[in-house]
Amino acid sequence: MSNSFPPKKHLIGLVGFGTVARGLCQILSEKRAYLLKELHFDFEIVAVTTRSRGTMYHPSGLSLSTLMACAESKTPFTEHLKAWNSETMIRKSNATIIVELADSILTTGEPALSHCRAAFETGKHVVSGNKGPAALAYSELRALADQKGCAFLNEATVLSGTPVFSFIRTALAGNKILGLRGILNGTTNYMLREMEAGISYKLALEKADSQGFLEADKMADVGGFDAQAKLAILANILFNQSLNLDDIKRKGITELSELDIQTALREGKRWKLVASLTLKKNQILAEVKPEALPFSDPLSQVSGTLNAITFSTDLLGDVTLTGPGAGSVETGYGILSDLLTINTGVLT
Amino acid sequence: MSNSFPPKKHLIGLVGFGTVARGLCQILSEKRAYLLKELHFDFEIVAVTTRSRGTMYHPSGLSLSTLMACAESKTPFTEHLKAWNSETMIRKSNATIIVELADSILTTGEPALSHCRAAFETGKHVVSGNKGPAALAYSELRALADQKGCAFLNEATVLSGTPVFSFIRTALAGNKILGLRGILNGTTNYMLREMEAGISYKLALEKADSQGFLEADKMADVGGFDAQAKLAILANILFNQSLNLDDIKRKGITELSELDIQTALREGKRWKLVASLTLKKNQILAEVKPEALPFSDPLSQVSGTLNAITFSTDLLGDVTLTGPGAGSVETGYGILSDLLTINTGVLT
């Protein structure tokens, strides 16, 4: 897909080394030859920087097998150590693409936001797995990126690896997107299905927690904050808006009772946490709220931790994309998807 | 998306001027400025050739408003007449892309097949809206196209405008597709839903006919031949196979009774005509048959004339795409999607 032969080698700097980075390294390790041959994607990971384990750096590339071994352990790095913090790595390394996966706070976007700025200031592309940058400061970061001819991509932030943005940009190219409705939070979707099976909200929450589905801040899921941030990202990228989180009405599932769930079922409906965007006369209406959907609504059938978005388009009517909304390899693929987009050169 | 500035102008020759061509002309007419500005897609339609209305040709382009007026009437063409048949237009016109939409016979692929060969022999890209070429002779035509550096694209043939091939090629790039299951025929899907509401097979068939949903040969839909051809196209393009139609087991819905439908409903299941492809040790298993799907299967919820395909992938697990499977503008968009792919230059 790249237009240059031999393909340009992308030098990747990873900020953060949690589950998503590990999923990415696993894919890159298993598919290196395939990606080069079929998609002309050539790369090295030159840096990995973390808050607790230190920074590894080698300008001609770290070995993927070393990285995979590090991924298995939790101990401080021992090879190719460099006394750099994240921001210094971003500014001083020879990385051409920064993959931003640092633990960040959703309400402030930090430190992810500062990492993005540092990358653009030094002319590096950014692939972010954090929701903060695109949810809170998309316009500012987009402008910074454009000034330097850099890509700013966020595929992994909305449906993990299910490719929303590349789907719209490439597969639906030429369509105008008029609105969307989606199930953007797998945890609440899982909980609502459990409650349909007859357990209480409290028990469903405990069950989700024991499966590791909940964010550290539980309200992020059940209060609708996670879906709200994802909806802001969709509005900002697909509809060219500058929404603040406050511009999006938000209601979580915390007030739904077992009775509500069972009453709806008897009426042929299912409660779902629905996020919606509607464009009316260039005004955007954005909202997250629980809705009792009739079984005939395709979104009512999206079960467990699956996510889905129905896009309303001018040429095709409704088109629905359903896929995973979480997972290490899945979200790692979301990051790879952006790396491949940068490789095609269409955005820069 | 194009890499050249100013963008290269594509010269389009239309073979056939039925509902799909009209849908395409309508989109091109309404979106000309948008397509140029946003996607750097510049074009002229230089020729339209038909069996019954003659051939129009102007090497620097026919006016879209003339074409739209012609689309409204059914009378022979009167302007820019040229005494060419389809094959002569393909060989002698200055078109760079042939959009192949001639009435063709599915079992032989003709005349579409001959049109494709003529186009590749004279170095022209082909966008086909006919199922025959890719279902019956994909390997041969692919080889011919490759020899001349031409594109051979078939987006509109499987799910009308719902973009299957560009979705796999771009949005799912890097994934290995392990198999798929889909509802590829909207007419039978509509009929089965009608039968669920309590009417007989015979009445459902009449209702589909009165709505204009049936192909001229009714068995194409209800006998599963249409789904079989679409499955062959998916196998040939996505799995690099050279399947004949005979390699695909086929059973239609003609033997399903009202009792079968109602019994399934009582058991929480819905009959659907399911087309499936499974890759096992590089052997492909392909089959079209009615299946009683539990309500929990997302395909059981695809209603009316909607189509859907669930792709099994190595990195993302199951990803499902649901959208329209018919319609003039929708299928016209399928053609446009391929024209935009040619415009990106990634395939040639």
Q: Rg of chain A, please?
A: 20 Å
For this entry, what is the oligomeric state of its chains?
Answer: homodimer
Order of helices and strands of chain A: EHEEHHEHEHHEHHEHHHHEHEEEEH
Q: How many DSSP helices of chain A?
A: 14
CATH homologous superfamily heading of the largest domain in chain A: NAD(P)-binding Rossmann-like Domain
What strand order characterises the main sheet of chain A? 3-2-1-4-5-6
Distance between the termini of chain A: 14 Å
Walkthrough of the structure:
Two copies of one chain form a homodimer. Chain A is of the alpha/beta class and 348 residues long. Chain A has two domains: 170 residues, 3-Layer(aba) Sandwich (Rossmann fold); 158 residues, Dihydrodipicolinate Reductase, domain 2 (2-Layer Sandwich), CATH 3.30.360.10. Chain A contains 14 helices and twelve strands. In chain A, the strands form two sheets. In chain A, strands 3-2-1-4-5-6 form a six-stranded mixed beta sheet, with helices on both faces. In chain A, strands 8-10-9-7-11-12 form a six-stranded mixed beta sheet. Chain A is globular. Chain A starts with 8 loop residues before the first strand and ends with a helix. Chains A and B meet through helix 1, helix 8, strand 12 and helix 14 of A and helix 1, helix 8, strand 12 and helix 14 of B. Strand 12 of chain A pairs antiparallel with strand 12 of chain B, so a sheet runs across the interface.
